[in-house]
Design goal:
alpha/beta, 16 strands, TIM Barrel
Length: 373
């Protein structure tokens, strides 16, 4: 602990940029590495989850990611559930002026003011189901009560409740809050919920019956959340704290294992690898997939927070494209910056460090290092 003046004490925390992996005494053949991941009854070839953001996931890209061994999560509060044909609106957002972010935000707020339509939620999820991949959709806690029955009726396999900060006990004097424990107990499908950034809130979410807990803010809003709200998560520490909660809950519950999913500050393959090393079971990624040629945002990146009417956060950012979704997930790649061939990078890292699966990889030693761009 560090003293801040005479009345405050604080703990030193660490970002993913500040840690480095330490290889063990042996190396492995990358062809012997298994990077599969399972949540509840659903098994995936890779631990990569597509973040529920309009710039990243459409029904088509969710299907494509599913066929590549990952899980695509559709944003059920996005343009795909507000408009029968959202493509002209997506095109307009990508064409908004980069030099006038205020005007761009105002126009995005107007576009997203169109009401969510239950029939479109059902239609989009059915489209994904008909393609033969695992179906996942996401709502914020504010809209879960209103639309979850529609989501379940559509045949969703996995349900995600995702917000900037989600707690097991939300107190409101103006409206009935979502009772997560009762809600998850009565729901027939596994639920992933978050984000959280600490041991205690994560443990409380695990006690609600969640199958997975999201760690971090996600959505590309970390920087503006810090600037606008003064809230920031150092992801290496946050993942480690939540992994500790997972271990304690495993003992407390008599053997119930809750998946820890890193969600934020994961722009390159090295970030994802370090998140898994710190204790995450899987990673929810947005920016890497926004660089795919098939991405709805055409190289632009934004999340739900970017068009909030009450307090917009997140910056509509031009990331550019680096290749097809298949190249980004599975290679081959000509890029040396960790922006593509995520599977190859993860397998090579495990092999170089001497591990053959993700669970054993969580035991790796790490060092604290100065951050160098």
């Amino acid at each position: 602990m560090t003293d801040i003046g005479l009345s405050k004490r604080a703990r030193r925390t660490y970002s993913l940029d500040e840690i480095a992996l330490v290889p063990s005494r042996r190396t492995r053949d990358a062809r012997d590495v298994n990077i599969s991941w399972q949540i509840d009854a659903f098994k995936f070839d890779t631990p990569f989850i597509g973040a529920p953001m309009d710039s990243v996931m459409s029904p088509a890209t969710a299907i494509a990611l599913g066929k590549l061994g990952g899980l695509g999560v559709l944003n059920l509060e996005g343009l795909w559930t507000r408009y029968e044909n959202p493509q002209p609106l997506l095109d307009e957002i990508t064409d908004l002026p980069a030099d006038d972010p205020v005007a761009a935000t105002r126009r995005m707020q107007q576009i997203y003011s169109e009401p969510i339509k239950a029939e479109l939620i059902q239609a989009r999820l059915e489209e994904i189901r008909e393609a033969g991949v695992i179906v996942a959709g996401s709502l914020t806690p504010q809209n879960t009560q209103e639309f979850y029955q529609t989501v379940v009726k559509a045949g969703v396999d996995l349900f995600v409740i995702r917000g900037a900060a989600v707690s097991a006990q939300h107190v409101s004097a103006s409206r009935e809050p979502l009772d997560l424990k009762k809600f998850i107990y009565e729901l027939d499908v596994p639920v992933m919920v978050g984000g959280v950034t600490g041991y205690t809130p994560a443990l409380h979410l695990m006690r609600t019956g969640a199958a997975g807990v999201l760690v971090g803010f996600g959505g590309g809003a970390a920087l503006t959340t810090r600037r606008g709200l003064g809230i920031q998560a150092a992801m290496a520490t946050a993942i480690s704290d939540v992994a500790a909660a997972r271990s304690d809950y495993l003992d407390e519950s008599g053997g119930r294992y809750v998946q820890v999913i890193a969600d934020g500050s994961l722009g390159r393959s090295g970030d994802m690898i370090k998140a898994l090393a710190m204790g995450a079971d899987a990673v929810m990624i947005g920016a890497p997939l926004a660089r795919a040629q098939e991405a709805p945002g055409k190289g632009w990146y934004w999340g739900n927070e970017a068009h909030s009417l009450e307090f917009p956060r997140g910056i509509r950012t031009q990331l550019g494209t680096v290749g097809s979704l298949e190249e980004i997930i599975q290679g081959l790649s000509a890029y040396t910056d960790g922006s593509s061939n995520l599977v190859g990078a993860l397998k090579r890292a495990l092999a170089t460090c001497g591990y053959t699966d993700l669970k054993s990889f969580q035991r790796i030693d790490v060092n604290i290092t100065p951050y160098v761009r």
